[in-house]
Amino acid sequence: MRKDRDLEVRVLGAGVEFIPRALDTPLRLSSGLITEVTEARTEVSVLVDDKEAIGRGSIYLSDIWAWPDPALTHEYRDDALRLLCEEISDGIEELCGREPAHPIELGLRLHHSVCIGNDPPILARAMCASPFDAAIHDATGIALQRSAFDLYKAPANLPSADPYFEGAAADAIRSSVQKPETRLDAWWIVGNSGSLDEAVAPWVEARGYRCFKLKIMGQDNQADADRTAEVYKAVRSYGVSDPSLTVDSNEANPDADSVLDYLERLKAADEGAFRALRYLEQPTGRDILEHSQDWRAVTRLKPVMLDEGLTSLDLLMEAKTQGWSGLALKTCKGHSFALVAAAWAIENGMVLSLQDLTNPGYSAIHAGLFAAHIPMINGVEINSPQYTPSANEEWLPRLSGLFEPNEGVHRISEPGAVGLGSDL
Q: What was the pLDDT predicted at 47?
């Protein structure tokens, strides 16, 4: 019988299809307004020993988030991202390396191969590669009839990851995989304007949300502090006794000093709101080498999580040196990449959160399983139930615990699902 240490997977081929999705409610980022998006659904076939299997993945090609260039139209960027996905599909055997390897190694090879060049930018490239990476892990688990997370508990040769660890990367990854959680805090996204009574109160009453992510603009600290305090007071009035808040300016703050000023203004405006604030997602420019900051004064008050700026494993030590508290992981950067980054962060005393990209279906199941198995400080942010609920309909009612959170939590009914849960 094959031993786990000998796990070797060969990628045989891939396919991709595109599904247009309209958001029920527009999502405003500092870089623009998202009203529609393309879902990329992928299939990857693999060979494990003598077993062939097909795995699935999906991702939203969120160009306004991953490629925020106002000089280019949404249509232009969307077409370019679709083309890149098709190129990845056609060339996946070469991009993963033709030599069989552990699925984590295959995923890292794919990430490194695709994330070369700046047009589209690296974050958009990683996003396009990510559903193929997820499908590799899903297919491997299906072939072996095991959860993908069981595959990470044995020794493995990971030459693309080992140089970042004092010991073996596989040992660090194994140590980061926990007994899976079955209840994960659910988060509701709150825009920077509009009626809270209309946009938030009904969902607190219907679903029991108690965790709220605020989109702030990062240009007027007093306005952002006032809005944070307003949301805190509002959700308390809706019956949430102990709300949790996070804020995300999508890199619109000019520097760390402005973030510190926001926190000081928030504390002065409302002590309760300040206490409720759990952490801040990346507030400043996504290139952390170009926009290097010293976060120590800020993190003495609240954790600050690196998000868009983490695009390469080479940046992990730089993030720690700059004083980032932890990593806001997104599976849209690649399952293998996220696993390795999470293990490195835990080994280096940093915390983790799992942030979504408004992803539905396969990708939401994937995010839920990832957050269940890797320790997160926020549960999991899955917000397709808020913005594109129709994209989840084919999984209802059987996965209503995940896609229709109740009592403020997502329920992971089958944390040991085969692969990454595409058969659920």
A: 98
